[in-house]
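Hello forum,

I keep getting stuck at the same step: I have a sequence, I want structure tokens, and every attempt I make locally crashes halfway through. Rather than fight my setup again tonight, could one of you with a working pipeline run this one for me? It's a single chain of 81 residues.
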Amino acid sequence: MSAQSRADQLQQNAEAEEDEAKRSGLALGRRRRFSEFDCPICSANNPHDAFGNGDDVLCAYCGLSFVAIVDEEAKLRLREA
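Reply #2:
Ran it on my machine without issues. Output:
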């Protein structure tokens, strides 16, 4: 493989990874929004209006309230309110 084709392949791979991060929301970091969550207490899946870092969410099944915490890697954690 020539140096030019190798560089082209690396560029294509980097662009594909960037596109995937944009599609999945990972590129947004703490600004990522979610439309559902799994309750950490009862494991029920809860569809929800768009919510993000610092927002309060309520489990429709067990009734507990949580604060959404989104880290720099766009991962959601729920802390009991």
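The two ends are 57 Å apart (CA to CA). If your local run keeps crashing, start a new thread with the error log.
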